[in-house]
């Protein structure tokens, strides 16, 4: 009976494992490539030459872009009515009360993370209940160090109905510094 030297068995396993690694990487690249294809190519559906390629413009929903710079508002924590009143006044003052929110990030200030995030989450629920244009927007609450009692609300609005994605003129952004 011949025995292999101990180093030979380890070399064979290494080559075998390297082969599986390359197979896994190839599968990952395939998934990425398929995911980056337009929807028509992913489903395999090809439009027939006699059928129109898209519905008439009047029935097709418009794609809505997102304003990439947030409008920032700051409210003092308190009752739900107080937060709604403060936030509504700031929306009207910035001229964006009729705009629809794309998503909302709220930052509750507090010395500790727990109370700060709780304040941000409470403000998010008040906004959801009190403003119909914020109802379907995803909202996330975060903590920001500092004295308790304030929540900064960064709102990323959807594009205006005419497709304009420019930053609203009367808005202030926390990105401005």
Fold and architecture overview:
By secondary structure, this protein is of the alpha+beta class. It is 38% helix and 18% strand. It contains four helices and four strands. The protein has a four-stranded mixed β-sheet with strand order 1-4-2-3. α4 links the parallel β2 and β3. It is elongated and about 85 Å long. It starts with 5 loop residues before the first helix and ends in a 20-residue tail after the last strand. The model has no long low-confidence stretch (mean pLDDT 83).
Distance between the termini: 78 Å
DSSP summary: helix tally: 4
Major beta-sheet overview: 4 strands, mixed
Number of strands: 4
Question: How are helices and strands ordered from N to C?
Answer: HHEHEHEE
Helix % is: 25-40%
Class by SSE composition: alpha+beta
Shape annotation: elongated
Poorly predicted ranges: none
What gyration radius follows from the Cα positions, in whole Å? Answer: 26 Å
The pLDDT mean sits at 83
Strand order of the largest sheet: 1-4-2-3
